[in-house]
Structure formats: C-alpha cells, structure tokens
Design brief:
By secondary structure, the protein is of the alpha/beta class. 33% of the residues lie in helices and 15% in strands. The protein has a single domain, classed as TIM Barrel (Alpha-Beta Barrel), CATH 3.20.20.80. The radius of gyration is 19 Å and the shape is globular.
C-alpha cells in the first residue's frame, strides 16, 4: 500500500549529507526598508487518492471537498496557484493507457479540474515525478529525455498549464538527461518573463535546504535559476521530513540564499526571487494550524523573514517569491484530508487576506 506518495524528505539522508559537508552558521537576513509582496501562494494538490489522480472526479464532489481553494469565505481564492501532483514521467513517455491513465496522463487531471481553478484566476501546473516515481524518472531520462520533454510540452499545451519538475534522485541524478528534457520543453515553450503564457511556466523542486538533492541543487542553481540567464522560472524549496519550527524553516531557506561554498562543486547562492518555501498543511493524521489557524501558523511567524530575506551573492531584490503548501485534499492513503471539516480557509485563506495575495498571479520578480 502506498502510505505516502509525496514530497517526503529522508531525515537520515539529510543528516548523513550534513555530516559529510557540515554547514556553517546561519546568517539572519538583513531587514528591508519595504517587505517584498508575496507573489506565489500555492498548494500542491493530491486529489482524493493519495496523488494518483487515477479516477475522473465528480465535479460536485470535487467542489465540496476543495471549495476552500477557490473561496476563502468572501468569494476570493485562498491561493493563486495549484499544482496537480503527480504525473509519472515514464508513463507519460510511453503514452500508457490503463485504468488510471490515458495516453500517459492520469485520467483525473483533465480540463474540468483545470478549468475549475483557472476560472477563478488560479494558475494551474502539473507536477512531473514525486518521490514515488524517482526510479521512473531515471528510466525515462535514460531512455529518451528529449521525447519526454516534447510530450510534457504537448501536455502543457493540451491543458493550458505549466510543468513542475519533481525529480528526487539524491544519488547521481541524470542532470544530462534532465538538461535534454528542459531543452526540448523550452524549444516548444520559451522562457516568458511576463508570465502571460501559462505553458511557459517551468519550475523545479529542490530540498528544503542545501543538504539533500545536492547534485541536482548545485546544477539547477548554477545553470537554470540565475537571474542573468534564467532557464527555469523558479524553484520550490520543498517540505522537510516533518513540519519544521519557524527557526528551522528559515535556516533551511537561508541555506539556498547562502549556497555552500565548502561543497565540491560548490552550490552557488540562489536569488530570493528564484524560489518559494514549502510548509505542510496536512501531514499524516494531523491537520496543522497552517491549514486552520493563521495566527498560529508558520506562514504567519515566518512571513516577515520571508518578505525581507536579503540576497547574499545572487539577485538584487529582497524577499522569497512566496509559499507552497503540501498538500490539498488527501496526500496519503491513511492520512487526513483537507476536505471539510478540515478545510483551510482559516489558515491558508486567512493568510491570503493578511498578505494581500494577488489573484491572478502577477508577473514574477526577475532579479
């Protein structure tokens, strides 16, 4: 049984890597004169079947379980981005049709679900991968990464969505293959700084800090996430193995800002305008304050830090792009769901009001 299909981080792996290349002291970001407005405020979405999206949803039922995403209680959305998670990259490459997929795409990820969100000004992306599909990423990248990129681009065009790369290979990831995938995708959908073309939005997930997914993090930061020659729009610093404290979350994110000069090869600093920070809203049997109680939430207690985080070697503007929440509806087979009575108007939704989250998402800061 799949108990958890999502962005689960191996604490053991992180500790081992930290021991191999110990981090220096964490520097607090300098205060900015004016906090940067939060531009991205989104949720990964797992449907009601632990992220398989293997059934076509009844849209009345879907609305009942997910209405909080499009209405925080006053008719305005709680988020400005939803990332449908996950598409299996190997299934997409092979164009597999079976009980849960049609031509390589989960049958629940259809135009009805996409339109449910986009009709309320919420941007939609599809996440390609997830930790369950790491081996399938490896196989697909070894088999034909260019064709995979072309198929991902065609899927984006078909549904009018962007694509998120969630490749969680911690040991010797195939960055050459991933470069070919990105080249093929960008040949169809060039980088669009304006953000006007939803299919041009191509992002990547990295670890909560710099001490896991090290090779991928180093390559992505150096080659795809620069402000001078951006290839990917931004990265998501994912959730760690469990909900962090405010101090730990900020410390993790600071690692991306600082980079790791003591690694070989070094991880360069990442511009604040090139990543978001991830938090849990539902985790195992718990519904967190991040879902239900903004005043007690991490998006509240870390908000000042996130909006004032200063560049430390990359970029010129202060403030991370925003927050991503893991995960809407049912991210694990035995876990809680964010459907009523656990819907997230009081946490995520109240935060959208507190931070004046723009819907639709504006053009993102580029520096």
């Amino acid at each position: 049984m799949r108990v958890f299909r999502g962005k689960f981080r191996s604490a053991v792996g992180a500790i081992a890597l930290a021991t191999a290349a110990a981090a220096g002291p964490v520097a607090a970001p300098a205060a900015a004169a004016t906090p940067a407005p939060i531009q991205i405020y989104g949720a990964w979405h797992c449907s009601d079947d632990a992220c398989t999206w293997a059934t076509v949803r009844d849209m009345a039922d879907f609305d009942q379980k997910n209405h909080w995403l499009i209405d925080r209680g006053d008719g305005r959305p709680s988020v400005n981005l939803v990332v449908l998670s996950f598409v299996n990259p190997l299934t997409l490459l092979n164009g597999t049709t079976n009980s849960g997929n049609s031509n390589g795409v989960p049958i629940g990820m259809n135009s009805a679900v996409v339109n449910y969100f986009t009709s309320h000004g919420i941007r939609v992306m599809l996440s390609l991968g997830g930790i369950t599909y790491t081996d399938d990423w490896n196989t697909a990248l070894a088999q034909n990464p260019t064709l995979l990129g072309q198929k991902a681009a065609a899927l984006a065009s078909q549904l009018g969505v962007g694509i998120e790369i969630d490749y969680e290979q911690s040991s010797s990831p195939n960055v050459t293959g991933l470069q070919a995938f990105i080249n093929a995708y960008r040949a169809a959908h060039p980088y669009d700084a304006s953000g006007a073309d939803p299919t041009a939005r191509l992002t990547i997930d990295v670890a909560a800090g710099d001490r896991w997914l090290i090779t991928l993090d180093q390559y992505a930061t150096a080659n795809w996430l620069t402000t001078s020659n951006p290839v990917l729009d931004y990265a998501n610093a994912m959730v760690p193995s469990k909900q962090p404290s405010a101090a730990t979350a900020e410390s993790n994110w600071q690692e991306h800002l600082d980079g790791k000069s003591n690694y070989n090869p070094a991880i360069p600093p990442l511009a604040p305008a090139k990543f978001t920070g991830g938090l849990y809203i539902a985790e195992g049997s718990q519904v967190h304050p991040e879902c239900t109680n903004f005043s007690s939430s991490l998006q509240n207690s870390t908000g000042s830090w996130l909006q004032n985080a200063a560049p430390n070697g990359a970029g010129t503007s202060t403030g991370l792009l925003g927050y991503m929440f893991w995960a809407a509806e049912r991210p694990s087979t035995r876990g809680v769901t964010t459907a009523p009575p656990n819907s997230c108007e009081g946490g995520v939704g109240a935060g959208a009001t507190a931070y004046s989250i723009p819907t639709p998402m504006p053009a993102l800061r580029q520096s």
